[in-house]
Structure formats: structure tokens, C-alpha cells
User: Fold this.
Amino acid sequence: MSRKKYILLAAALVMTLLLFQTYVMKPKSETMREEIQLKYATLQKYETYMEGSSITDAEIRTTGEEMKILLGKLLKDPSEFLAAARLQKEISELSQNAGLNIQTIRPLNTVKAKSFFFIPVYFEGSGTIRQIGSFLNDVENHPVLLKIEKMSINVTNMQNPRELRFKMQISGLGKL
Assistant:
């Protein structure tokens, strides 16, 4: 008889443990699992943010260095008039070096943008495609920041199609 009591007591103990695990422990472990998953997802988001911020820091440093280089290429003349005259001189020298014939060169109205200003210079002339290409290459490599705003190239003399007529507007950037 006592053996049956022990078996029933052991079965009751096993049933109590199963009921305790099913109704008490399992809901808490599910809640803890969900909290762990949520915190892990947040941690991954912060890790991604930190990786991105280090890339952004490097890009900011690179952009700062590029800005210093560009600021060194600005027109540094004390007035817009002197800056326009200097820009005309630079363009005339570049066109002479390339072998272009300039018929007209004149500055246009200055455009102001915050602490900078753009000085456009309009000029017309003639030359061969090789001379125009050499001129454009010189503009690209010039130490002053120059931007070609408008450009048109036409054949004007059908007897001599190698001689081209061009019209260009090039702007220089200066700091106020």
C-alpha cells in the first residue's frame, strides 16, 4: 500500500511540475524572449547607425578638404570690377595660348549668391576644333575656378569647314 502512495505522490508531483511549467514558466519565458528579440533589433539598429556615422565623419572630413582646395581657386580681387578684368585677361591668355582668334570679349552682369559672386564673361571668336579643344582643356586645368555656362560652335565658311566660329560664356567664382 505504501508503494501505491509513493507512485501516486510521484505522479502528482510530476503533474504539478508540468502544470507549473505550462501555466507559470512558459508565459514568462515567451515574454522574456520577445523582450530579448526587441532589444537585439534595437542594438542592431544602433550598430548600423554607428557604422554609418563613421562613414559620414570620413565624408565630412573629405568634403572639408575639398572645400579648402576650392576656396583657394576663387577670384580674390578686392572688387567685382577688378575680378571681371582679371577674368577677361585670363580668358584672353588662354585663348591666345590655344591659338584662337577672339573678336569680342566683354563681362556680363555679376550674379551674387550669399557670400559668393559669379562673374560671367562672354566672348566670340574662331579657330579649329583642335584649338577649341586645347582651349577647353586649359579652362579645365586652370588654377582659377572657371565654369563654362554656354557654348555654341558653328561652321560659317563652307569653303573652309575647318574654321569654326564659337560663342562662349564662362563664369569665374569669387568670394565677397
Summary: DSSP finds three helices and five strands in the chain. The chain has a mean pLDDT of 83. The two ends are 108 Å apart (CA to CA). Residues 80-175 form a domain with the Alpha-Beta Plaits fold (CATH 3.30.70.60).
